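Hey, resending since the last one bounced:
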Amino acid sequence: MSVAPVAWEAPQDQGYTADYAPNDRLTALEIIDLDGRSGPEDADIGPDGLVYVATHDGEILRVEADGAISVFAQTDGRPLGIEFDDNGTLFVADAYRGLLAIDRKGAVTLLAETTKDGSLILYADDVDIAADGSVYFSDASTRFGAEGNGGTLAASVLDLVEHSANGRILKYDPATGETTVFAGGLNFANGVAVDDAEGAVFVIETGSYRVWRFPLDGSAGSVVLENLPGFPDNINNAPDGTFWIGLVSPRNPAMDTLAGYPALRRVIMRLPDSMKPAPLRYGFILRMDASGKVLETLQDPAGDYALTTGAVTLPDGRIAVTSLTEPRLGILDALAR
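The structure tokens again:
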């Protein structure tokens, strides 16, 4: 499918200044090799207290206590966001298949590949679970499906260049098995984090460099953090009520400049792949509170561990840092922060 770019006004990029001033706090990562797999885009803590990660080849890996890697499940797709519920079921936003559930034995069940109105779920991206059991997950792009457009990264570039606000947040009701549209009109709907205490779901809008707060009662949402200096990806709850957010890459100055020139953006997409927009290697994690205040950033300007999608707090206080493309998982000791 060809892109049909829409004109928009990108906010002026302030770069890595003020709250985002550069540091090297992410350079002290302990690295866990994934035995030939890559793309640990999201992680979560299982009922056994171990770390589980999704990978490009469809496997959900379990990181044993000694750092060894074992296979927990195979989705036969491209799992992105993962989240365990209180009963030990792992919910998976699979970019190729839709919403999945995996039981404690690793058996995979397809929960949703279409919505109640019959629309296809083309790019399931991230997922979280509310206290009442409702499952909220993003469908990043309803125009550029991940499987049909060269994979998750290639499809995301198409959607970001087009900027047609076709992403959405879906809600799966386990009692009825129905999936409905909870919120729409987002430019590449990405990370999802439910905050029951706040009565809201926080959502990353990658294409507009911002974070939304949508009340669970369905009332109008609001932006809580905007004009981020990079492309935000995942958002995960931390134990203290704050949130971890990963920036995959710094913003692209040329694409911001061309925001108001859709015809030129269309020309760019006709160029060879080597000349098209691509992420830059710069590791970046931030922590914000429920009001959108940035509390800290963890950065790796050299990009040794890069295309950072987010972080998850481990039971011992360390954080697992995830990535779009790395063949390894990063672990940061609490004292190193």
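The chain has three helices and 24 strands.

Sorry for the duplicate.
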